[in-house]
């Protein structure tokens, strides 16, 4: 099984629910009661009490107030580990995406995949009044948008099938066609792609693969309103994004 495998591990149902319980605690929802967790995860209250007790036992959860629980400072170590692991990528990418941002005056982003989602790990913000949904740390589906699709294309066909199983039936035919194995294989070989209004209405985007020693580790992309990106400007942005991906890849592979 690969590091990014989307296949479920057999016999790990309890462990999966335990981790899902912990992952319910976010910046937007920092405290939970057992009853609310049980409802959120569709679990029996007795099972949820057991998972909360286990997380308290290892020091990851503690009481907040009343019947609510919160994540403890021990969880900060996980965040620090994440920062340490992505440091080489962000250090290599930040000056490059800042330079591209300055040239096109559009937001430029770096994303990585984790499980069944893509996550923005760095971004250089445009001065233009356009709000993109892809904030740092925010999960985005791997089937929508050029940055996510580059990451999806880098996976094996089996991994893609697992991720897309519940998604493809509900997509319009044109969108579903972009996610066929044949089209994703072409995207992987080409190393870049573009999208039209897949995530945000009226927005065009392009992205390219960042590699380290031949393996795709991230994607770099930009997006802009369609009304201000004619074909010539889109071609220039694609050129800059592809060149930036190559530059970052060379830096990462030299380490």
TrEMBL record:
PROSITE patterns: ICLR_ED. It comes from the Bacteria. The keyword Nucleotide-binding does not apply. It comes from Streptosporangium amethystogenes subsp. fukuiense. Keywords: DNA-binding, Transcription, Transcription regulation. It holds the Pfam family IclR_C. Residues 74-254 form the IclR-ED domain. This is IclR family transcriptional regulator. InterPro entries: GAF-like_dom_sf, HTH_MetabolicPath_Reg, Tscrpt_reg_IclR_C, Tscrpt_reg_IclR_N, WH-like_DNA-bd_sf, WH_DNA-bd_sf.
């Amino acid at each position: 099984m690969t590091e990014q495998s989307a296949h479920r591990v057999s016999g790990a149902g309890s462990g999966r629910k335990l981790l899902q319980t912990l992952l319910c605690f976010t910046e937007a929802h920092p405290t939970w009661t057992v009853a609310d967790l049980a409802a959120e995860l569709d679990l029996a209250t007795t099972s949820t009490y057991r998972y909360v007790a286990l997380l308290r036992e290892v020091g990851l959860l503690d009481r907040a107030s009343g019947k609510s629980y919160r994540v403890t400072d021990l969880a900060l170590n996980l965040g620090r580990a994440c920062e340490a692991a992505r440091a080489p990528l962000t250090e290599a990418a930040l000056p490059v995406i800042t330079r591209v941002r300055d040239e096109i005056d559009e937001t430029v982003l770096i994303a990585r995949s984790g499980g069944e989602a893509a996550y923005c790990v760095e971004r250089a913000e445009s001065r233009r009044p356009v709000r993109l949904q892809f904030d740092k740390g925010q999960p985005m589906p791997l089937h929508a948008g050029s940055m996510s699709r580059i990451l999806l294309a880098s996976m094996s066909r089996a991994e893609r099938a697992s991720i897309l199983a519940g998604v493809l039936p509900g997509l319009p035919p044109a969108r579903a066609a972009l996610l066929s194995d044949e089209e994703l294989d072409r995207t992987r070989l080409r190393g870049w792609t573009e999208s039209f209004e897949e995530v945000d209405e009226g927005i065009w985007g392009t992205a390219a693969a960042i590699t380290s020693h031949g393996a795709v580790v991230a994607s770099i992309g930009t997006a802009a309103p369609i009304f201000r990106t004619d074909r010539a400007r889109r071609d220039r942005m694609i050129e800059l994004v592809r060149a930036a991906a190559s530059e970052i890849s060379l830096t990462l592979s030299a380490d």
